[in-house]
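$ ./design --mode recover --in tokens.txt
reading tokens...
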């Protein structure tokens, strides 16, 4: 007996803000959640699995129109025609109260009730599936005690949308503990909700968050996909993760230490980018890049803002053997100045470094300085202009201070012609 376990499909999840990125592959990004579901169906057909389990958040929210539901239904029919059974629970995003539009149900696709937990006994497969859907977006109680007892002589699977004991970045819904799951007496817990894959417990019972099927933004990085599990004689004999995403997100730090020209930067990036895509050439790679390190490129950027991002874009144009899109280039560069030596200098450079040291080592001064800088920026974008400077953490302020120092020093070095090693 073989089954697939997936969760958090978020089909047709809206991707906000894409229009602000020039050259963004908008159509490919928008269709990625559908393409990943189609890839899941193809895997199920190829592997001739018996069951597909979907552990909630199939939809991101109420459908904008019926096309979202019709697309999902069409994919379920492909499974149905191959005799594959589907079991699903609704999660917080697609809770019963959230999805107001309805379509005729598909025979062979079992949607667990939101009002009571149920068990489905599949005698021919030697499997029992237990589950319960979310009635509302917020489910504060532990649902596990309400799940039925295991059926004797069956491989018992619990299908559950839960934050478990809490996971960073995820709202605490249907919280429960590993201990509670273990005490239930099931063989496998097919969990959903947490978008990062996690094998919570490898066996007795096996407890898995498969992660989402397709990353939706730069914070959902790396391979995304489903679990493919084989059970023989009531025992798991194979379990593997199968990547299915069509767009892979990356957050990538490029070390620019010691690089002294945009050509060097471009060459360095091309080498790293080729490695990044090497094990998955057949998909789009979306990259959020942080360029860091001590480099005179900082001075170039201060003199000609946008230089580094443009050099990276240019390098990407040269990469005709990789399907790569740079979502964003962030900078975390330092000027290669010897600050200790500079602090002893009698000139303007020494004065700047001493002033920055004084501000940076006194949190009160640092906060006051930061608030003043923000107040002086008249043309901040709306959301940022309304942000409270007190909410920024001290480390973020220090990065901002170091950036200001480097900018001032870059300008000064043009006047004094010393302090830079170029
Ligand atoms: Mn969820």
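writing sequence...
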């Amino acid at each position: 007996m073989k089954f697939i376990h997936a969760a958090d499909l978020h089909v047709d999840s809206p991707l906000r803000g894409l229009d602000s990125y020039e050259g963004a592959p908008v159509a490919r990004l928008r269709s990625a959640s559908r393409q990943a579901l189609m890839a899941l169906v193809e895997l199920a057909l190829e592997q001739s699995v018996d069951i597909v389990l979907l552990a909630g958040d199939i939809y991101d929210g109420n459908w904008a129109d019926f096309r979202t539901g019709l697309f999902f239904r069409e994919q379920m029919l492909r499974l149905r025609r191959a005799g594959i059974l589907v079991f699903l629970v609704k999660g917080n995003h697609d809770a019963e109260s959230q999805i107001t539009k309805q379509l005729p149900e598909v025979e062979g696709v079992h949607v667990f009730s939101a009002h009571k937990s149920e068990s489905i006994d599949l005698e021919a497969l030697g499997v029992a599936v237990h589950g319960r859907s979310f009635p509302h977006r917020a489910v504060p109680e532990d649902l596990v005690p309400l799940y039925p007892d295991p059926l004797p002589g069956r491989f018992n699977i619990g299908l559950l949308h839960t934050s478990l004991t809490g996971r960073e970045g995820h709202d605490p819904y249907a919280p429960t503990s590993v201990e509670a799951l273990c005490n239930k007496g099931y063989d496998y817990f097919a969990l959903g909700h947490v978008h990062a894959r996690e094998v919570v417990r490898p066996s007795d019972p096996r407890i898995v968050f498969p992660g989402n099927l397709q990353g939706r933004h730069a914070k959902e990085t790396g391979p995304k996909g489903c679990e493919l599990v084989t059970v023989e004689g009531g025992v798991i004999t194979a379990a593997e993760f199968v990547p299915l995403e069509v767009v892979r997100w990356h957050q990538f730090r490029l070390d620019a230490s010691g690089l002294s020209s945009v050509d060097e930067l471009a060459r360095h990036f091309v080498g790293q980018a080729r490695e990044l895509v090497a094990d998955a050439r057949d998909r789009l790679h979306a990259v959020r890049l942080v360029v860091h390190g001590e480099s005179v490129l900082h001075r170039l950027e201060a003199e000609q803002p946008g230089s580094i991002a443009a050099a990276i874009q240019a390098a990407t144009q040269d990469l005709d053997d990789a399907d790569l899109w740079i979502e964003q280039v962030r900078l975390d560069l330092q000027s290669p100045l010897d600050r200790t030596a500079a602090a002893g200098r009698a000139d303007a450079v020494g004065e700047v470094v001493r002033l920055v040291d004084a501000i940076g080592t006194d949190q009160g001064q640092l906060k006051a300085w930061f608030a003043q800088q923000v107040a002086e920026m008249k043309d901040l974008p709306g959301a940022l202009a309304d942000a409270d400077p007190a909410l920024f953490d001290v480390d973020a302020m220090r990065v901002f201070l170091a950036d200001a120092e480097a900018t001032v020093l870059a300008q000064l070095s043009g006047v004094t012609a010393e302090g830079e090693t170029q």
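exit 0
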